[in-house]
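Here is a complete protein record:
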Amino acid sequence: IGAGVAGLAAVGAAKGLGAQVRAFDTRPAVKDEVQSLGGTFLELDFEEAGDGGGGYAKVMSPEFIAAEMALFREQAKEVDVVITTALV
């Protein structure tokens, strides 16, 4: 969850170890980066982009967050590891 610098590093490391990797980010612009590392980019059918200033994500609407959490609940049933990254 999160495909910024740390998230992309996690995708690359996991793929290097032979994992099947799925990644999600509120910024659709990182889709190509995830795919270039061999990961699958998860998307929501939701009309709200998460691009904020300076390449960082913006705060998303409560409706987007609810849809995102539903996606994560479904994905969590199928995976062994979930890695979350965030700007702190």
